[in-house]
Design a protein that fits this description.
Elements (H helix, E strand, L loop, with lengths): L1 H7 L2 H18 L8 E6 L4 H14 L4 E4 L3 E4 L2 E4 L9 H13 L4 E5 L2 H5 L10 E4 L7 H4 L2 H17 L3 E3 L2 E3 L2 E5 L5 H7 L4 E6 L10 E8 L4 E5 L2 E5 L6 H14 L4 H8 L10 E2 L7 E4 L5 H15 L5 E5 L11 H11 L2 E4 L9 H14 L8 E3 L3 H11 L5 E4 L7 E3 L5 E3 L2 H17 L1
Helix pairs in contact: 2-4, 3-9, 11-12, 12-13, 14-15
């Protein structure tokens, strides 16, 4: 029905419907965002990790906090994985969840706010108090018909928050606050769009034109994670990869804006438990590394592979599952995904991900073409395996002690989207755990 309506109704009428539904949902649940301090996180990468970091820090500070992300949902102590295949829930469901947060006694709500969600006006009816911008890269260009439209969707969150009414909580006025990564592409436009009472603008670079509030220095990757300094304070976090500094500092900035002390934030950050499906290590008793990660496009894949090459060295093999999503989404990145995987990994297994209504074999062939173009050889160091479970078996069977196997693109997702709108239960982490146990059992016998 939805597909049919999209074909027969004018786009402007559909947008008006989305706006109406956003306002209706907020009214239906008695405008729950007005009873919470709402933090919206947008950007291309790192949104889910940043949200989880903010949740952890606010919870450590003693608050009850709700959260909705691509990865997971939280309402105070209740936690469950996102099985909807949606970053930003539909208007009624999202407002219902905010209402549940109020009912549970939450003081804060953290909402991962996507460009697609903004495009469909899912942010309408939500009164944001803080907005966080992580970074900006070309992404979802097919859906937004170009990078400029994609960027404008992100900017709309800042404009929307700037125009939202101030709230009164416990006799205090809640000021609107923006957190901006000044090192990101077009950061100046986000700073300008944030017509708010307070801004925290941070940078790792020196001599930045933007007025910097927080200067980040001494970034170091360690075997345990990453560390960096803000002034005299050194921060340590168990998240791996220097790129996570963007996410960590964004979360730290939120806490600074809320008046928390640097020593407290440093202490709270030390025991961050991580994010499901974000560089998650699977230990089923094997002697090689298995890394489950959400990386699904060339830049993130390159960062992931480069980090692990430094960890395992040149004498160990890196084996990756690689794929690309269907449904007409970002078709242009398919061959590039294969190219990056082939250039940086020793063995490449091209497999299925979320084909939607596209032919999954066609997607695989397009990704494989990229790998073949840079020198991989079919059935010697590159394989096309349609069944994702079989692909995982192949990857694990190739691994020797000390090697690393990557399961990319799905992270902790709980569903795989196939033809005709069907979603099948799936979890890379559970599948690879079973596969390894089976392989180890066969070797033991």
């Amino acid at each position: 029905m939805k597909k049919l309506l999209k074909k027969i109704l004018p786009p402007k009428l559909i947008l008006q419907y989305h706006k109406f539904l956003g306002r209706y949902a907020a009214k239906k649940f008695d405008h729950p965002s007005n009873k919470l301090i709402v933090i919206g996180v947008t950007g291309t990468k790192g949104k889910s990790t940043t949200c989880n970091l903010i949740w952890h820090l606010l919870t450590q500070a003693g608050f009850k906090v709700g959260m909705a992300t691509t990865v997971n949902f939280r309402i105070a102590d209740k936690h469950w994985l996102n099985d909807t295949k949606m970053t930003m829930l539909g208007r009624t469901k999202l407002q219902n969840m905010l209402s549940d947060m109020v009912e549970a006694g939450c003081q804060y709500a953290i909402i991962e706010t996507s460009s697609e969600g903004i495009k469909q006006f899912r942010h309408i009816g939500i009164n944001y108090d803080m907005v966080v911008f992580t970074n900006l890269y070309p992404e979802h260009l097919d859906a937004h018909e170009g990078f400029e439209n994609y960027k404008q969707a992100k900017l709309e969150l800042f404009r929307h928050a700037s125009q939202s009414l101030l709230k009164e909580h416990d006799g205090k006025t809640i000021q609107k606050i923006a957190v901006v990564n000044a090192d990101a592409t077009d950061a100046d436009q986000f700073i300008q769009a944030a017509q708010m009472g307070s801004k925290i603008i941070w940078s790792r670079k020196e001599n930045v034109e933007a007025p910097i509030n927080l200067q980040i220095s001494s970034v170091v990757e360690t075997a345990e994670g990453v560390k960096f300094s803000i002034g005299e304070y050194e921060f340590n976090c168990n998240l791996h990869g220097a790129w996570n500094v963007e996410n960590i500092v964004s979360a730290v900035s939120v806490c600074i804006a809320q008046g928390f002390s640097y020593p407290d934030i440093v202490a709270w950050l030390n025991n961050f438990p991580g994010v499901p499906g974000r560089m998650e290590l699977i230990d089923a008793g094997q002697k090689f590394f298995v890394v489950v990660d959400y990386a699904y496009e060339p830049t993130s894949l390159g960062l992931l592979y480069d980090y692990w090459r430094k960890q395992v060295g040149l004498d160990k093999k890196m084996i990756t599952l690689i794929s690309s999503t269907g449904g007409g989404r970002d078709v242009g990145r398919r061959a590039t995904n294969g190219q990056v995987a082939a250039e940086k990994c020793d063995y490449v297994i091209v497999t299925d991900e979320d084909p939607y209504d596209d032919d999954p074999q066609e997607i695989i062939d397009q990704v494989a073409a990229g790998a073949l173009a840079v020198g991989k050889v079919e059935n010697q160091n590159m394989w096309r395996i349609l069944d994702r479970t079989e692909a995982i078996v192949k990857a694990c069977s190739l691994a020797l002690p000390g090697d690393v196997v990557f399961l990319t693109a799905k992270g902790a997702e709980q569903k795989m989207c196939v033809a005709k709108g069907k979603k099948i239960d799936w979890d890379d982490r559970k599948v690879v755990y079973r596969v390894i146990k089976q392989i180890l059992g066969e070797k033991a016998t």
